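Support reply, case 0932

Customer input (verbatim):
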Amino acid sequence: MAEGTQDVANILIVEDSAFHVLMLRKMLKDLQVTFVEAANGADALAHFKEHAFDLILMDVEMPVMDGLTASRKIREELEQGRSRVPIIAMTGHLHSDKHKEILQAGMNDYIIKPFTREVLRNKIMTYLTASTPKEPASPESVPALYNLSNLKEFTRDNEGMLTQLIRYFITNTPLVLEEMDNAFTSSNWDEMARITHKFISEVSFLGIKLLENRISDLEALAIKNADPGQVEPVIQEINLICHQVIHQLNRDFPAKESGKTRILLCEDDFMLSKTIEYKLKLDGYEVLTAENGKDGISILTSERIDLIVTDMLMPYMSGLELIVHVREKLKLSVPILVLSRVGLEKTVIEAFELGADDYIVKPFSPMELGARVKKILK
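Our regenerated output:
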């Protein structure tokens, strides 16, 4: 590329909007790069098979084949034996539930429309070095977004405690992001300032400098009651960075699994929870416990779960709210067994309508619980 590199880069533009294609043509011509245009993901795959590209600008929503599908096919099918090409998503909106999809599809970054020439140039310069041959990327070659030196000093290099704190960050961060989204939606800037002030200390302990800076920016915007148009892109960037960090931490500090069937138990009654946990472990299951639906969601976002056993009436997030979140937001088909008590028949019916698979009425015997769990897991 002419601006800062010796060679001319070749870029694949994948965009179905004629308006945006005209804009990109002008911007890329000013940057003195060559480019090829594709109107959808299927066209992009055809071009990718025939030509070598240094970077791909990929729209997310397109007819015939969307950008996520095209990116997955490039990563999984077409890149075998070839250098890994950076893919930058182009989208009008980047909601929190899209971040994970973008990363899983193999995309490297995103630009929010409308973007300026300077934003486009900065993204291209970040991912392109046309004068340097690119080697296929491996997980080990990707720079870590975190620095654990402070945390290691704090834990005195106690590996068990270090891993425990990291796993807490992995499971808790999605809940923090959800709280941020709720505060933004309700324009509750005092709550946003509280959330960011608390979260920034956890982030600094893990040495995630880029994330720490953006959270600090968000806190400052919240304190001065900034315009939502200024706040939204910062939240979107924080979401993306968090998912990238969690991806790296899960890779570097994987959760240890026993190979057993894993049951998530959500129950706020301590004695009943311990009784159920004891019975399920006795039957050979691995049990993860949560005192409410909110903590249960945190576990579900980071752990493999084969069955959910949940009470209906819990603080912070009820059993019904948990079912809705699992089925509609997380899109999980994991079976759900509801714990109910006499007099809540209407609630049980509602639970079935929302996606529960079975229920058991309190008080119940350990034998009945074991039989229900065994049946539902079949």
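We compared this against your earlier run and they match. Two observations from our side: The chain has three domains: 10-137, 149-252, 262-377. Residues 159-185 form the longest helix (27 residues). Please reopen the case if you see a mismatch on your end.
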